[in-house]
Amino acid sequence: MARTGPAPVRAHVCPCAAECASCVRTMSKSRVLVRRISSSAIDPYDRQPYTDHAFAETHPDRLAVVARLSGWEPPELGSARILELGCGRGGNLLPMATSLPGASLVGIDRSGRQVDEAARIAREAGVGNVRFERADIESYASEDRFDYVVCHGVCSWVPAETRRALLALAGRSLAPGGIAYVSFNVLPGWYDKLAARDWLRMFPADDARASLAWLHEAVSPEHGDYRRRLDAVASRIRDAGAAYATHEYLAEEQHPQHVSSFLAEARDAGLEYLGDAIPSHAAIEMLPEPVAKRAESLDVAQVQQLVDFVRATAFRRTLLVRSEDARARGWRWPLRLEPRAVSGLRVASRLVPHAPRDTGAASERFDGPGGSVLVIDPTTRRALHRLGEVAPRSLPFAQVAGDELFDLWLSTGGIDFHAHEPSLGDGLSARPEACPVARWHAAHGGTITNRWHQEVVLPDPVLRRVLSLLDGTRTVDDVGSALATHEVARASVRAIARAALLVR
């Protein structure tokens, strides 16, 4: 039977770290083969590079939103100077650079292999506002100052002295008013994973999942909770792949901390807590009233430690600012976010109406990445329908102003606030142009990141082929000729536009 269109664009919840619902990525279902990392002259990330991924919560747009909701005026995004520590092959920094064409970006990594590959991809994709340097955190020296410093997936995987050097480097590198993002594994949530890590390191095996399955069967059913924890680790390894298993569970350096300990080290480096890049994971508003009441008498580090014990947090995405800037601004961390600050932001929705609009119904169901929600408030229902009409674009909050949008943002993951909107194509251009990094990955393999810095899955090879051809020089009919089917080309361009992959 002749095809009438491409398979739909799908999204999967990111398995990179516990509780993450902010970015989406391809999940590997293949057998996971792992290699134990030992001390060697060869950098372990040269031996087995980490997979390329973008992390939506690291984008300066996200950091600026959290800053404003916390009473901190962030640096201008359009001309921002951005540094990423531990940039790998540029999976996070390259799409970030395309979404902020007026910004200047620098990525450093100790893995020469990954830095060389990142520079090659930038060159071949034509991304000119980013550069990559091979450097160690301990020895990196630059007079440059940056508005945003990003360090994802490094802090817990280095020795304590390197971790402290990382925080000191972040503090030195920030320009006045700048914001740093640092992620790390935390206790008590990581206690659930430590037994699995110790087992895999003490009894090495080629297949981590099979090894954990063997241990599961060997453990008495009386220890059901222990078996459940082993199963949870095996599922994460299945979803995230071999590189994750190797670097997360087999690396010699893996040091989860209590958040209070981390914040003490940050203060020693001249940095203060601003918030969490995924506010719902740390917001007092999301916790029971007795917890919020107890938090009122605690300092910021104690509050965050309380949150982690209540939530059994395993992973943090902490935002930091310079202590001297906080003092100069007279700023103090607020216990609660300021909902009124959304009036100066933009809003987009990934909540899709389950049925045509029914103004007479008492409530309406909307389906999103984290599940479905029933919305009663009429202003919020109108806002969601309006946002659905313009998706994937955003609108100024003042134009929609749903009474419960802030609550939906905090609780569902289906609403996104933005301080900046990148250029987005609607598929109607005579010569559609897709993001150059997305085109490169469509042609050469790898995960694909949209203009909102969210990873999307294109399950159909036809969609990837069409995406790779949308360089702004071809009409849709030209693409159809290349595919020998104009109808599929037109449907593919519409699907790619809905996935926020077009520049124009």
**Shape, please?**
globular
- Helical percent range? 25-40%
Question: Percent of residues in beta strands?
Answer: 15-25%
Biggest pleated sheet: 8 strands, mixed
Structural class: alpha/beta
Low-pLDDT ranges = 1-41
Total DSSP helices: 20
State the distance separating the first and last CA atoms. Answer: 33 Å
Mean pLDDT: 89
Radius of gyration: 23 Å
- Total beta-strand segments: 16
Name the descriptors.
8-stranded mixed beta sheet; alpha/beta; 3-stranded antiparallel beta sheet; 504 residues; disordered N terminus
Give a nutshell description of this structure.
The chain is of the alpha/beta class and 504 residues long.
SSE diagram, text form:
Elements: H1 44-47, H2 60-69, E1 81-85, H3 93-99, E2 104-109, H4 112-125, E3 130-134, E4 146-151, H5 160-173, E5 174-187, H6 191-202, H7 208-218, H8 224-240, H9 242-249, E6 257-258, H10 259-268, E7 271-276, H11 289-295, H12 300-311, E8 315-322, H13 323-329, E9 346-349, E10 352-353, E11 364-368, E12 371-375, H14 378-390, E13 395-396, H15 397-400, H16 405-412, E14 415-418, H17 436-444, E15 448-449, E16 455-456, H18 461-469, H19 476-483, H20 486-498
Parallel strand pairs: 1-2, 1-4, 2-3, 4-5, 5-6
Antiparallel strand pairs: 5-8, 7-8, 9-13, 9-14, 10-11, 11-12, 15-16
Helix pairs in contact: 4-17, 6-8, 7-8, 10-12, 17-18, 18-20, 19-20
